[in-house]
Amino acid sequence: EKASQLQTQKDSLTQKLQETERRNVELESQLLDLEQRLENSELESHSFRKSLRSLLQLLDGKIFELSELRDSLAKLMEEDSS
Amino acid sequence: EKASQLQTQKDSLTQKLQETERRNVELESQLLDLEQRLENSELESHSFRKSLRSLLQLLDGKIFELSELRDSLAKLMEEDSS
Amino acid sequence: EKASQLQTQKDSLTQKLQETERRNVELESQLLDLEQRLENSELESHSFRKSLRSLLQLLDGKIFELSELRDSLAKLMEEDSS
Amino acid sequence: EKASQLQTQKDSLTQKLQETERRNVELESQLLDLEQRLENSELESHSFRKSLRSLLQLLDGKIFELSELRDSLAKLMEEDSS
User: Fold this and answer.
1) How far is A61 from C62, CA to CA, in rounded Å?
2) What is the pLDDT of residue B79?
3) Residue D82 DSSP code
4) How do residues A29-74 score in pLDDT, each as one tens digit?
5) I need a labelling partner for B61 at 20 to 30 A (CA). Which of B5, B27, B52, C73 fits?
6) How would DSSP label each residue in A10-77?
7) Cβ contacts of B75 on chain D, cutoff 8 Å
8) Chain centroid to CA D27
9) Which residue of chain D is at minimal alpha-carbon distance from B69?
10) Is D1 exposed, middle or buried (0-12, 13-18, 19+ CB in 10 A)?
11) What is d(CA A30, CA A15) in angstroms, rounded to the nearest whole number?
12) What 3-state DSSP class applies to B19?
C-alpha cells in the first residue's frame, strides 16, 4: 500500500506540475505581448516627439519671421513720421 | 491833349489793377484750398499712423504670446522625454 | 490843374498795381511751394502704403503658415490618440 | 524497490514543481511591473496630449487674433486710400 500511496502522490504532483507549466506558458505569452506593446508605445512616442520637435522648430521660424515683419513695420513708421 | 492822354493811361492802369486784384483773390482762394487739403491730409496721416501704432502694439502682444506658447510646448516636451 | 490831378491819380494807381503784382508773385510762389509739398506728401503716402501692402501680404503668408502648422499638430495628435 | 523508484520520481517532481512555481512568481512579478510601467506610460501620454490639446487651442486663438489684426490693417489701408 506504500507503493499505491506514492503513486497517488506522484500523479497529483504530475498534474500540479502540468498546470503550473501551462500557467507559465500563459504568463510568458502575456509578458511577450506586454513587452511588444510597451516597445510599440515607445516607438510611437519617440516618433511623435520627433514630429513635435519639427513643429516646434517650424513655430520658432514663424515667430522669428513675424518679429522681422514687426520690425519692418516699426521701421517703416519711423521713416514715415520723420 | 495831355489830359486826355493821362486819362487813357489812368483807365488802362485801373483796368490792369482790377485784373491783377481778381487774380489775387483767385490765388488766395487756391492757397486756402490747398492749405485746407494739406491740413486734412496731415490729420488723416496722423490718425492713420496712430492706428498703425496700435496695430503694431497688438502685433507685439501676439508675437509675445506665441513665444510663450512656444516655450510651453518646449517645456512640455522636455518634461515628457525626461 | 486837371492834368496835375490825373498825374497824381496815375502815380497812385501805378504804385498800387506794383504792390498788387508783388503780392501776386508772392502768392504764386506760395502756391507752387504748397503744391510741391502736397505732391511730395502724396508720393510718400503712396510709397508708404505700397510698403504696408507688402507687409500685409507677408502677414497673410505667416498666418497661413501658422495655420498649416496648427493643422499638422492637430493631425499628429489625432494619429497619436487613435 | 518499486516504492524506492516511485519515491525518487516523486522527489524529482516536487523539485521541478518548486522551480516552476518560483519561475511563476518571477513572471507574475515581471508582468505586474510591466503593467505598471504601461499604465504609467499611458497616464503620462494622456496628460501630455491633454496639455498639447490646450496648447493647440491657444494656438488657434493666437492665429484667430492675428487674422483679426490683419483684417484691421487691411481695413485701415482701404479707408486711407479711399
Assistant:
1) 10
2) 82
3) -
4) 999 999 999 999 899 989 999 999 999 999 999 999 999 999 999 9
5) C73
6) HHHHHHHHHHHHHHHHHHHHHHHHHHHHHHHHHHHHHHHHHHHHHHHHHHHHHHHHHHHHHHHHHHHH
7) none
8) 21
9) D55
10) exposed
11) 23
12) helix
pLDDT at residue D42 tops 60:
yes
Residue located via cell numbers 510651453: B72
Mean pLDDT calculated for residue range A8-21: 96
Of the partner residues D48, D58, D69, the one whose CB lies closest to the CB of residue B58: D69
Among B52, B59, B74, select the one facing A56 at the smallest CB separation: B74
Residue type, B49: R
- Structure-block grid coordinates of residue B56: 503694431
For residue B59, what pLDDT band results from cuts at 50, 70 and 90? very high
Contacts of D33 in chain A (CB under 8 A): none
Distance (Å, whole) CA B37 – CA B25:
18
Residue carrying C-alpha cell 496835375: C4
